[in-house]
Write a structure and sequence with these properties.
Helices cover about 30% and strands about 35% of the residues. The chain is globular and about 35 Å long. It has three helices and seven strands, in the order ααββαβββββ. Strands 1, 2, 3, 4, 5, 6 and 7 form a seven-stranded mixed beta sheet that branches. A hairpin with a 2-residue loop joins strand 1 and strand 2. Helix 2 packs across helix 3. With about 140 residues, the protein is of the alpha+beta class.
Length: about 140
């Protein structure tokens, strides 16, 4: 059943844990994709992602903690001195959120940028879609 917007209708994120979704978005980049220590990265994945999580990135689809960890570790190894910086604040809608970001050497302009879009289930990331504005150089 569709509801039409009116002065009496609830905002789109009523009932969602907006601050929890924002926290997941804010932690994901530095603690998973920006983390060089495999043990800390793996601990963050266990804390932030569902067991059956799915990562959708331009190179393919990766399912589960092991695949996510391998992808993030391999990516980190290609640019170990890059950092991820948020571009703006996270946006939350129902059980999803998005965050724009850039990556490059600390203190320099980003070498590439993108947007992360997540679907959250039971307080954890169930799916992460990574949209790149330009591929990493």
């Amino acid at each position: 059943m569709n509801q039409h917007a009116s002065e009496k209708s609830a905002p789109p994120s009523v009932g969602s844990d907006a601050s929890g979704i924002e926290t997941l978005l804010n932690r994901n980049l530095p603690e998973v994709f920006g983390e060089g220590d495999p043990a800390r990265r793996r601990a963050a994945i266990a804390e932030l992602y569902t067991e059956d999580c799915v990562l959708y990135v331009p190179p393919g689809i990766f399912a589960g903690h092991d695949a996510l960890d391998k992808f993030a570790g391999d990516l980190r190894a290609t640019h170990p001195h890059y950092v991820y910086e948020h571009h703006g604040a996270p946006q939350v809608l129902h059980n999803s959120g998005r965050l724009a970001w850039g990556s490059g050497p600390k203190g320099e302009a980003p070498q590439y940028t993108g947007v992360d879009f997540i679907i959250v289930r039971d307080g954890k990331i169930a799916a992460l879609y990574v949209y790149l504005d330009s591929p990493p150089t």
